[in-house]
Write a structure and sequence with these properties.
six-stranded mixed β-sheet, alpha/beta, elongated, two-stranded antiparallel sheet, 2 domains, 8 strands, single chain, 12 helices, Rossmann fold
Length: 317
């Protein structure tokens, strides 16, 4: 499982805490004078582990790693499990839980190490764009120059991250009423499909290798960031995108830029401590003359209503 850091938590401190708790869990696999002593030792480990991790990882991660259903059952029955008749049952339950906790922490550390390794390229500039960027930006994704948009030096790589909630939003927009939204959503997802081919990371733009400088310029990597197992999304997609971007920032160990065309999202991102680039959209033009009478539209419905008005017929919508 990939953990979700608390806002501001450092990935190195998270890894150290996970490793420490894992080591203490390994130490639980030793002989005890009684099964009840083993139970109490395990429960004390769980309490101390939660104390060490609560400022580093989310409550849901704590539930998956420490406060499992079996832990709650053992804690709730602790007062009735001291007798000799329950020795074998208690010992088996505690040993099973400890073994599973060791495996869970090993998996969490391994997933964290994999993500740290992938996100440790020092030349890379990380960016998350919300769906408004892909729909409203004047340039479609295939043609956009992210280095120019972000004002990033050409010799740096850009990693364009897609939290899966953004992919889901774009999927929904393929059925939008507005043609631009439908087309841009289909274009963006089609480009992702072509690059990733069912995977989660790939190269959106290879860039160009310059012999003079001996380096690649303008390279753009792309990655879909899946939700952690058991993750429950926030009610509003815009807020969920901010939340996932903050989590990515902690795991990446660097600033992650948010790209948006929305004023509200710009404000939310800044309030969450993110660097935000708000991309200008199409100029609405000059302000209308509000004193002039309203003109009827030029669409089919507007023309039909105009003909009905001239003929003295009741208008229909």
């Amino acid at each position: 499982m990939l953990i979700t850091p608390r806002p501001g938590a450092d990935r190195k401190n998270i890894r150290q805490a996970l490793r420490g708790v894992h080591t203490e869990a390994m130490n639980l696999q030793r002989p005890y004078s009684s099964a009840f002593e083993g139970l109490l030792t395990y429960l004390e480990w769980a309490t101390e582990s939660a104390r060490m991790l609560r400022s580093q990882i989310s409550d849901r991660d704590l539930d998956q790693l420490v406060f499992t259903d079996r832990y709650r059952a053992l804690l709730g029955s602790c007062g009735t499990l001291a007798g000799s008749d329950q020795q074998r049952l208690v010992n088996g339950l505690v040993q099973l839980e400890v073994a599973e906790r060791i495996e869970a922490f090993e998996a969490a550390v391994a997933a964290l190490d994999t993500r740290i390794s992938r996100w440790s390229q020092q030349r890379e500039h990380f960016v998350v764009a919300d769906s408004s960027f892909y729909i409203q930006n004047e340039v479609k994704l295939a043609d956009v120059d992210l280095h120019e948009v972000l004002n990033v030096p050409r010799w740096q790589f850009v990693r364009l991250l897609f939290p899966i909630v953004v992919v889901d939003e774009l999927d929904d927009l393929k059925d939008a009423s507005k043609q631009r939204a439908r087309w841009r959503a289909a274009h963006t997802l089609g480009l992702l499909d072509g690059v990733l081919n069912g995977g989660t990371h790939g190269v959106l733009r290879e860039g160009e290798y310059t012999v003079q400088d001996g380096e690649t310029r303008d390279r753009v990597n792309v990655e879909i960031v899946l939700d952690p197992p058991g993750h429950v999304r926030l009610d509003r997609p815009d807020v969920e995108i901010i939340d996932r971007t903050v989590a990515i920032q902690s795991l990446a160990g660097r600033d992650v830029r948010l790209l948006t065309c929305d004023t509200s999202q710009h404000t939310r991102g800044r309030a969450a401590g993110l660097q935000v680039t708000k991309v200008a959209t199409k100029d609405p033009g000059d302000e209308p003359n509000w004193s002039a009478p309203d003109r009827s539209g030029t669409g089919v419905r507007a023309q039909r209503r105009a003909r009905q008005t001239e003929a003295g017929e009741p208008t229909t919508s």
